[in-house]
Amino acid sequence: MRWPPMIYHPCYSALQLPQRHRYPIGKYQALYQALLQAGVPADTFITNSPPASRQLLQLVHQQDYIDSLWHGTIDAKAMRRIGFPWSEFLLQRSLQSVGGTVHTAQLALQHGLALHLSGGYHHAFAGEGSGFCLFNDLAVAAMQLQQQGVDKILIFDCDVHQGDGTALLFQHNPGIITASLHGEKNFPARKQQSDWDLALPTHCQDQHYLEAVQQSLDYLLALHQPDLVLFDAGVDIHQQDDLGLLDISTAGVLARDQYVINSCRDRNIALAAVIGGGYQRDLTALTAVHLQLFKAALQSRQLPCDLPA
Fold first, then answer.
1. How many structural domains is the chain composed of?
2. Which domain holds residue 249?
3. Which of 120, 122, 210, 242 could form a disulfide with 163 if both were Cys (CB 3.0 to 4.6 A apart)?
4. Concatenated DSSP letters for the chain?
């Protein structure tokens, strides 16, 4: 079996943030290094994905919003809602990450499976950002592929926070199905309506959670028969996550990712996965949880895997 393509760029962790900023910006580089150390060949990683262009962003986002970020004229209140200080590098990093998810989706259609060591910026709306999200990479990728002729796309979002931006963007697009399994009492306070929403109770544990994932995915795949699944494999569901409020173990994260990957593989549905959210301040511990997605991917192809349990 061939190694699945993995998309990465050094800029993902190079953004300078204020000390003690809530966002764990170092996790992308830590994840990349951990995968190399575990024996993933260096040529598995694609580091030259084209950054998103203005034209590509316009498939989803309003021109005046794009312009405000492009030129740094966005007002301070709007940037506080996003949660980052504006900088030219922040913009370039965001463009690179959106481009990386688009490339991941394209490669998934070619190879059956592809993974992005970033992505999942699902709180970005057409004309505003929110929750550390400037542009909605999942939405841009879905729209780009729909325009290229992909008939049915399922966005299966398992981040602990509802994919509210994605839900609102595609409320009137029957070819792009939005599904969100999220914490009932978590951000955002105002939820949007996805095609499939499942709100999970605070302190939800493995058995309840995995049953919800399995039943939801089985139903959605059977009903919609998508050509491509975009999987947001957020690990802020983890019991040690600072922002999650759920009680899912590392084994539970692995079981979720195995189920999603294997279900798509067994049905010959292309799967593009992004790592989504994860907010433990202990970067080593956080990286170990994010690694479960890659462990599940390599196991699905019976590839050598020296990743932690």
1. 1
2. 6-13+37-300
3. 122
4. -PPPPEE--GGGGT----TT-SS-TTHHHHHHHHHHHTT--GGGEE--PPPPPHHHHTTTS-HHHHHHHHTT---HHHHHHHTS---HHHHHHHHHHHHHHHHHHHHHHHHSEEEESS---TT--SS--BTTBSS-HHHHHHHHHHHTT---EEEEE-SSS--HHHHHHTTT-TTEEEEEEEETTSS-SS----SEEEEEPTT--HHHHHHHHHHHHHHHHHHH--SEEEEE---TTBTT-TTT---B-HHHHHHHHHHHHHHHHHTT-EEEEE------S-HHHHHHHHHHHHHHHHHHTT-------
pTM > 0.85: yes or no = yes
Looking up residue 170, the CATH number of its domain turns out to be 3.40.800.20
Instruction: Report if residue 169 sits inside a domain.
Output: yes
Task: List, for residues 29-58, the tens digit of each pLDDT value.
Answer: 999 999 999 999 999 999 999 999 999 999
